[in-house]
Amino acid sequence: MSNAVPTGSSATSASASPGSPSSVSPSPVTEARVPLSERVAVHDAGHARVLALPTPIDDVVSFRGSFWTAPDLGAGEELLQTLTVLLLDKGTQARDRFAVAEALEDRGAQLSFYSDDLRVGFSGRALRDDLPAVLDLLAEQLRTPLLDVGEFAKAQAQVAAGIRRSMDATGSQAAGLLNRRLYGPAHPNYMAEPADELATLEAYTVDDVRAYHAAHFGGTKLRLALAGDLDPAQVAQRVEAALGDWAPHGTEARYDHDAAPTTPGTATRVIADKQNLDVRIGHPLALRRDHDDFLALYLGVYVLGGNFSARLMSHVRDDLGLTYGIGAQLAGIAVEHDGHLLTRVTLSGPNLERGIEATLGEIRRFVEDGITSDELAEKQTTIAGTYAVGLGTTRGLATSLLVNAERGFDLAYLDQYPDRIHALTLDEVNAAIHRHLDPDALHVGIAGTLPEVG
After folding, report:
1. Which of 340, 354, 248, 348 is nearest to 301 (CA)?
2. For residue 216, which of 6, 75, 44, 405 has the smallest C-alpha distance?
3. Can you state the angle between helices 77-86 and 206-216, rounded to 10 degrees?
4. CA–CA separation, 18 vs 20, rounded Å?
5. How far apart are CA 87 and CA 68, in angstroms?
6. Smallest Cα–Cα separation from 132: which of 44, 231, 46?
7. CA-to-CA distance for 293 and 436, rounded, in angstroms?
8. Are strands 48-54 and 9-11 parallel, antiparallel or unpaired?
9. Which residues make Cβ contacts (< 8 Å) with residue 92, sequence separation at least 6?
């Protein structure tokens, strides 16, 4: 929703770096035969819901969690949430930022935080024996952050610098142009004008951050997923001791669930000295992540622009040579709100008009003709395979468990997902494409040094 810098912050050690051998979860045949959902232990730990998955690795546990913050998006509180999250690892009421960093580094542990519009999330990794201490530190940072005025000023400057950088980034500006045509200011997918963001940001004080934390941080929809060398019952006890009594805040979220598009058209943003222009093309979609058509439409759009063998890449890049980069996806869709079809293409000035025309033409042909049986089979294999790879690490398992819980899906969905993809028929995918995609409803955002006309 914001053009601001990412809100994650972390303290890391080389011994716990991403992709290290200790993070990889072997998949013995005996374990693979047991459905994932049957290996996950679910515990209510006070106000927290814990999903714990033991895996056959030694010593390491990865975790990921989130809670519902319920910001007022129309009032610009997403920026206030961003500032609050940036301060979580800058000290607590019990220890300063250096003591926090040292507590993680001494254990070779990771702990980071992020803002996700309607939620705040966290992720980390620790050795099995250090997990209780890391969970206690997590609770301390979430519940009693220092929220120091000096650190607030640094965070405010950091976010402002990110917004200013985005003003010179063609991709960010093209995306903002498109999203402002599709959504109102209170929708999670809306992207404010950078100048407006800066004005909102600069008006905030550390007292606003403290008030936001008091009103929006609490155990509302608190979920914590863990995977690795763990005992589920013991983990649930530790989570309950650290976060179980963190009371829900009771604040209601205020945001728009649906898109509010303008009349289809084109918006441009001139950015000087940019040889390549970024173009974003799309229209809103009246479906959410739990819609019956979602998987069919997801697969269809993957055929259009999901990878290097997709339609757009093959035609606009390989056949016509108009771009090095083009793709399409379903963007910004969640259980809580709708999203949009998004096509991204980078074009040089001389190729701008032809490139847009070729892209729009390929989208139209795609909607009119649908996909083929060969494309269906190929993308089913690709999507199911990518999903399986994502479950190959403790980090990936924890992430999948959390996302599934956030969506409110049954645990069985984690096992059913590849089968659901493979069960999609050609008629189902093409029917979803025809129901939800409309070439005449497309909006275009263009950012860069526009070619001179005439």
Report:
1. 340
2. 75
3. 90
4. 6
5. 18
6. 231
7. 9
8. unpaired
9. 100, 140, 141, 144, 145, 146
CA Rg, the chain, in Å? 23
Residue in this structure with the two tokens 């863990």, named with its chain if needed = 226
DSSP state, residue 21? G
Residue-wise DSSP of 228-252: ES--HHHHHHHHHHHHTT-----PP
Structure pTM? 0.90
| C-alpha 74, offset from chain centre | 20
Cross-strand partners of 224 = 50, 65
Is the distance from CB of 276 to CB of 170 less than 8 angstroms?
Answer: yes
Nearest to 147 by CA among 217, 207, 70: 207
How many residues comprise the chain?
454
Decide: 360 and 283 in contact? Cβ < 8 Å.
no
Say how far apart CA 67 and CA 249 lie, in whole Å: 10
Rounded Cα distance between 52 and 32, Å, is 17
Q: At what angle do helices 77-86 and 194-203 cross, to 10 degrees?
A: 60
CA 202, distance to chain mean position in Å, is 26
CA 80 from centre of chain: 19
Cα-Cα-Cα-Cα dihedral sign, residues 404, 409, 415, 416: negative
H or E stretch covering 119: strand 119-127
| Percent of the chain as helix, strand, coil, to the nearest 5 | 45, 20, 35
pLDDT tens track of the chain, all 454 residues?
Answer: 544 433 333 333 323 333 332 333 334 333 557 999 999 999 999 999 999 999 999 999 999 999 999 999 999 999 999 999 999 999 999 999 999 999 999 999 999 999 998 999 999 999 999 999 999 999 999 999 999 999 999 999 999 999 999 999 999 999 999 999 999 999 999 999 999 999 999 999 999 999 999 999 999 999 999 999 999 999 999 999 999 999 999 998 899 999 999 999 999 999 999 989 999 999 999 999 999 999 999 999 999 999 999 999 999 999 999 998 999 999 999 999 999 999 999 999 999 999 999 999 999 999 999 999 999 999 999 999 999 999 999 999 999 999 999 999 999 999 999 999 999 999 999 999 999 999 999 999 999 999 875 4
Q: Cα dihedral angle (341, 347, 350, 351), rounded to 10 degrees?
A: -50
169: enclosing H helix or E strand: none
